[in-house]
Amino acid sequence: ITLMNKATGAVVQTTDPGRALVTGKWADIGKFKGPILRAVASRAPYFHNGSAADLGAAVDFYNQRFGIGLTAQERADLVAFLRAL
């Protein structure tokens, strides 16, 4: 998609305008509002298809998918943090 700012004539190429579709603001092109994490522990299963039964499985998915390299302690700490939200 090619977008042009009528006021400045600036042009940008994007595959997803993001929040700009909602706000109409040039500065919001490519910005997204992520979901809140408050009470995330009470909303299992996770992902659009429910493939992560609990927070541990969700953390494991991201750890493997993106090669984060969390230690067992870091994983446990992250899961505990998410449960506390």
Features:
85 residues; mainly alpha; two-stranded antiparallel ribbon; 3 helices; 7% strand; elongated
Give the overall average pLDDT. Answer: 94
Overall strand count: 2
Side-by-side strand order of the widest sheet: 1-2
- Rg calculated over all Cα atoms: 18 Å
- The fraction of residues in strands falls at 5-15%
**Helix count, per DSSP?**
3
Report the span from N to C terminus. 38 Å
Element-by-element helix/strand order: EEHHH
Dominant shape: elongated
Unreliable sequence segments = none
The helicity comes to: 25-40%
What does this molecule look like?
It contains 3 helices and 2 strands; from the N terminus they run E-E-H-H-H. By secondary structure, it is mainly α. The termini are far apart. The relative contact order is 0.12.
Question: In brief, what are we looking at here?
Answer:
With 85 residues, the protein is mainly alpha-helical.
Which SSEs are present, and which pair or pack?
Layout (H helix, E strand, L loop, with lengths): L1 E3 L6 E3 L6 H4 L31 H11 L6 H13 L1
Antiparallel strand pairs: 1-2
